[in-house]
Amino acid sequence: MSMNVVFARVDNRLMHGIVITQYFPTTGAKRIMVVDDDTANNPARKDMMNLAKPNGVASSIITFEKAKENILANKYGDQTIFLLAKSPRTIAEIVKLGVPIKKLIIGCTDMLNEGHKLSDRAFINDDEVEACKELRDAGTQIVVQHNPAIPQVDIWSVLK
């Protein structure tokens, strides 16, 4: 598999200001890939998300099934990918397709004050904990960080 994910983040807002202005410029990525069924199936949300995309950068705002199809067909070749999803489960499923992901940053999540607390802005449910264990076992480092000004915290120092 030649798909090259240079950045992966779980964030409930997916492509937004902090992600695009503070993380994206440091990655050298040439494509932003948002994998989220609800967003991909909502034309208005998809259009709004594309407004945040920097000029000259390719984007794919797609369902997981479309991502799977594209990955298995090697559609992205050796492009550098900036990957965004709402759940660690999505990232774990992409890794299962043979895409190596060295590091995952968990930012903000949809679930607040539910499940396992990772930070004041990030909580994950039991299935997502299992997904994180799968990622760890596949060699992915997982950290929690809302924005680059805040130190990264290893997820396993938070989850006991």
Provide a descriptive summary of the structure in words.
It is a single chain. A 7-stranded mixed sheet has the order 3-2-4-1-5-8-9, with helices on both faces. It has helices at residues 17-23, 37-40, 43-52, 64-72, 88-96, 126-137, 155-158, and strands at residues 4-10, 31-35, 58-62, 80-85, 103-106, 116-119, 122-124, 141-144, 153-154. It is globular and about 40 Å long. It has a single domain (4-149), classed as Phosphotransferase system, sorbose subfamily IIB component (Fructose Permease). Strand 8 (141-144) and strand 9 (153-154) form a beta hairpin. The N and C termini lie far apart (34 Å). The chain is α/β, with parallel strands linked by helices.
| Amount of helix | 25-40%
* Coarse shape: globular
Which residue ranges are poorly predicted, with pLDDT under 50 across at least 5 consecutive positions? none
Tally of discrete structural domains: 1
Quaternary structure classification? single chain
